[in-house]
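Title: Prediction job returns without error message
Component: structure pipeline
Severity: low
Priority: P3
Assignee: unassigned

Description:
Job completed but the reporter wants confirmation the result is attached to the right record. Sequence as submitted:
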Amino acid sequence: MHLDTNKTDSIVTNRLILAIGHSSRDTFRKVYDKGLILKPKNFSVGVRIEHLQSEINKAQYGTITKLNLPPADYKLAYHDKNGRSCYTFCMCPGGTVMPSSSEKNTIVTNGMSYFARDGKNANSAVLVSITPDDFKNDSVLAGIDFQKNLEEKAFVLGGSNYYAPVQRFEDFDNNIKSTFIGSVTPTYTPGYTLSNLNEIMPNFVSQTLKNGIKYFDTKLHGFANPDSILTGMETRSSSPVKILRDENMVSNISGIYPCGEGAGYAGGIMSAAVDGIKVATSIIEDNFIAH
């Protein structure tokens, strides 16, 4: 659609690569209504956690070294006795927590690092696994509704002004609203609101986060620092639906090739790129055979 004229163009094609990303909710609903077969899949939700990068460096490298080492990173995972998992994702050394909402009146967080990775804080997603069994809803698109519900609640908790709700880990663990910022200052812009994130999360999410963060502290000293900052919510780590395709990468509608993370076939930038190569190769091979 042309935004200046409100006109639309139609492009006729016999092959369409549907690499729409995992935030294209309007497109998911449209292709489902048009007859593509979708099914719900596992995904994850959680928060961004921030620590002082200097403390992460100390935990990983120690304090006695003459080496000029880069800002330290980490990758951690926890599995509870009930089969629920918690893990860190997209760790950003010396980075910033970023606003990433794609719809009005929602808060969605993500993280990034500049090339120098020289920011004061380290951040990463801390995520809890979600399965279709967690919804009391048989809709194929129930996972999208679950995500959006958390994002809308985070918007309200933050003040309904696109400020993100934040909380010190000690307060989160004790289920009380934070009233001050300690040694770690949130990096989220445009701003933040001291909150109690327990108020907007299902109990199984908040409890698994608490257990996971405390377990991570046994692997990386200081991870459960009382002043660690949690910023809500991180909901877009992966797609909650999968657009089904066959061994030739084709959907149930001939000529449509679901591809990448949004279609449910990748879990990050590199795996999405690899899936794109696989789809392109399949199209090239099919075109070669046809000719």
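Comment from assignee: result matches the submitted record. The chain has a mean pLDDT of 94.
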